[in-house]
Amino acid sequence: MPDDDFEEVEDPGYDDDDDDIDTDDVEALVWNLLLLINPGDEETALRQFAIYRDAIAQGDADEEEPQWALKDAIDWTSGFYVDWKDTETFVDVINELIKRWNLDIDWGGDISDEEFLDRTDVPALMAVAYDRLREHGYSLWTWDTGSDSHAGWIALSRDDEGMQQLCQVLGIEIRPGSDAF
């Protein structure tokens, strides 16, 4: 259940007239990001927001780099974080994430075949997932981990511009999954 002391954010940080974003309230920005990566599922966004706030409050994460607190809050529910060579886990986590929308991805080969997974890599699979998800109105995003690992999330394609603006203000460098870091 969500934390009882959750403060509802009324202003999402967007100004409808000129698309400016209020950069003063990081929590509001993070809340909006969680809404984007949990389309139609405010309950999950609330749970993840509580985890994010706890991590910040306990000093386990830095508000200036919210992606790290978000990584733990959303992992395997609304986002992914995998090692650069772990193709099997990447396929598994994406398949888990898209179950929310009753989607399946044609990965271009038999994902239960170790040889298929050994012949590819996470960025190639990410590009396949990006293309297949776009067909259904979703975008796969990846953010710069500063390491060999790959991380990201999925949102509605109609929110692409908002996602880019929000992440820019939050200092999270993102790219479409078709152009992995």
Question: What is the strand and helix layout of this fold?
Answer:
Layout: H1 26-37, H2 42-57, H3 66-74, E1 79-82, H4 87-98, H5 114-118, H6 122-134, E2 138-143, E3 150-156, H7 160-170, E4 174-176
Antiparallel strand pairs: 1-3, 2-3, 2-4
Q: Can you describe what's shown?
A:
The protein is an alpha+beta fold and 181 residues long. The chain has one domain (26-179). It is 43% helix and 11% strand. It contains 7 helices and 4 strands, in the order H-H-H-E-H-H-H-E-E-H-E. The chain has helices spanning 26-37, 42-57, 66-74, 87-98, 114-118, 122-134, 160-170; strands at residues 79-82, 138-143, 150-156, 174-176. The protein has a 4-stranded antiparallel β-sheet, with helices on both faces. A hairpin with a 6-residue loop joins strand 2 and strand 3. The protein is globular. Residues 1-18 have low confidence and may be disordered.
